[in-house]
Design goal:
The chain is an all-alpha fold. It contains 21 helices and no strands. The two termini are 34 Å apart.
């Protein structure tokens, strides 16, 4: 056993030294220094957000615990739980995760591989912000009730462990499901059924006509009672109940609640272990066709492409890559889910996007799902990037074909967003529609142009089957997020002052002028893309060709 312990510690030490040397070596180049600075800035930004949330939740926990209403802490734990699980979805296009499958090439024990997988998950955005938020609740509740510090600490630690394991388990299984075409189709059907189910629940939540609009007190209390009983057996409710039980000097009840919470964490850990065990034993997340059919399929593809130009060939290739990448499809669907959830039902007064601005906000947010697709459009090429330099096809035609696919995908996303907004809150007036359309004429070419620049100058290898990225994604993600904010800010800066001064009808013409400049900028970048790629040929090949 002692030898095994030494071997495991040596493995941990070797991984730590490897990561350190990778960091030091990356700082020898200008891009490596920029990537390191981008990671620091992103961590500082989300750490600051987490600190603000933690201070707010800590003050709320202190207020609740001071009044000895400890069961109400469930609201805070539910907020942390929802935030912890939803943040990875909302920032799926910007979050950078390490692909740990490379460790399977070495004699690494399953226990060490599992521990690495969990530890690397501690550095994602959800865990960072969620952990700081839980720390704030712990501080606030402990100051108000110092005699309960043992129970509060134990409950918070178990709740944090459950969230970490649940998040890692969800993404591990999503990676597996999205790697197979059949399971992607099943998940698509489930996604549609969930949207329909939520929509069917809306009439029960928002009674809009006649006497149904006025709900009597007894009905409200009955529904709240049912909701309280249901949440009582779920992890956030168990944490608050355990702390409340300790406050009422019922240690056995608190221990029982924490035991159930530990069971939730154990189930999440077991499901994660099943997935990691399969990977550890050599399971591949690819979906390569059978050898017997590959030759036939290749022959049919050559026949279909014969006589077509390079632009058509690249468009077909991009569409095939897209349809076979569950990760990219997931990134496109995630913003639609958020738009659906945060647009209140028609006639409702609940939280959500304001009805008048729901469409432009939803359209702007839908760009997030296309970030990896547009701002790293060479990332999926891998070793195939060499073919572009060996081919007589001008590089600008390759980028032009990719931009056509980007525009097509965005049009599909736009249609879905308009359908969701129109169904949920109704479409806005003609003025907002005109402003949104003119802003899109500015935003789409601008994003395509800057996306082409970043794709050539800051390309990184993109894993099409797993939600992970190679080193070199932080700088690209930070700049793309900045561009997203600036593009949206230009539209707001044009429309809002004119709206406040009563000249909103001038917003559309101003945006059309900006759109003309944006289109010229895109054409200029497209014309120079060949020279840009030729000047960075070695860097592109190095970054995209290296093994994952």
């Amino acid at each position: 056993m002692a030898d095994v312990g030494v071997s495991v510690m040596e493995q941990y030490r070797a991984v730590a030294q490897m990561r350190w040397r990778m960091l030091v070596n990356s700082l020898r180049t200008g891009r490596g220094g920029f990537e390191f600075g981008a990671r620091i800035l992103s961590q500082l930004f989300f750490g600051t957000v987490g600190l603000m949330i933690g201070i707010g939740l800590g003050f709320a926990a202190w207020q609740i615990a001071s009044r000895e209403s400890l069961r109400v802490l469930a609201f805070l734990f539910w907020a942390v739980f929802i935030f912890w699980q939803f943040v990875p979805i909302t920032v799926a296009s910007f979050q950078e995760n390490a692909d740990l499958s490379i460790f399977l090439r070495f004699p690494l024990s399953f226990r060490s591989y599992t521990l690495f997988y969990i530890l690397f998950g501690l550095f994602d955005i959800g865990s960072l912000v969620g952990g700081i938020a839980l720390l704030g609740i712990w501080v606030g509740a402990s100051i108000a009730q110092p005699r309960l510090i043992f129970w509060i600490t134990l409950a918070v630690i178990l709740f944090a462990a459950f969230n970490i394991l649940l998040t890692r388990m969800i993404f591990a299984w999503i990676d597996r499901w999205l790697a197979q075409r059949k399971t992607r189709e099943v998940l698509g059907v489930i996604f549609l059924f969930l949207i329909l189910a939520v929509q069917l629940v809306n009439p029960a939540l928002y009674q809009m006509n006649g006497h149904h609009h006025e709900m009597n007190r007894a009905t409200i209390m009955k529904r709240l009672s049912i909701a309280a009983r249901v949440q009582r057996v779920l992890p956030p409710g168990l944490v608050a109940s355990a702390i409340d039980g300790a406050h009422q000097d019922r240690p056995l009840a608190s221990a029982s609640d924490l035991s159930f919470l530990a069971c939730y964490a154990a189930v999440a850990g077991a499901l994660l272990g099943i997935r990691l065990r399969a990977e550890y034993r050599g399971e591949s997340l690819g979906e390569a066709p059978a050898p017997a059919t590959k030759a036939v399929r290749a022959h049919s593809e050559r026949a279909r492409l014969e006589g077509s130009g390079p632009v058509a060939a690249v468009i077909e290739k991009e569409i095939r890559y897209l349809m076979r990448s569950g990760v990219m499809l997931y990134g496109f669907l995630a913003p639609l889910v958020i738009v659906f959830l945060f647009t209140g039902a028609r006639g409702s007064r609940g939280p959500g996007f304001a009805g008048e601005y729901a469409l432009p906000i939803g359209v702007a947010y839908s760009f997030l799902g296309l970030t990896r697709f547009i701002y790293n459009n060479l990332g999926g090429e891998g070793a195939g990037i060499q073919l572009y330099f060996l081919s007589p096809t001008p590089f600008r035609k390759v980028m032009f074909a990719k931009n056509i696919v980007h525009t097509m995908v965005f049009l599909v996303e736009l249609i879905l967003v308009c359908a969701i907004v129109g169904f949920r809150v109704g479409l806005p007036g003609p003025q907002i529609l005109a402003v949104t359309f003119c802003w899109l004429l500015f935003a789409v070419p601008m994003q395509l142009a800057i996306g082409n620049i970043l794709s050539i100058t800051m390309a990184y290898r993109m894993n099409m089957t797993r939600m992970s990225r190679e080193q070199g994604a932080a700088g690209n993600a930070l700049l793309s997020l900045l561009v997203e904010v600036l593009v949206f800010g230009v539209g707001a800066a044009v429309y809002l002052p004119l709206e406040f001064t009563g000249h909103a009808d001038l917003a559309a013409p101003v945006l059309l002028l900006l759109a003309a400049g944006s289109i010229l900028f895109w054409l200029r970048v497209l014309a120079n893309s060949g020279a840009m790629a030729e000047a960075r040929k070695e860097s592109l090949t190095t970054n995209l060709y290296r093994a994952a």
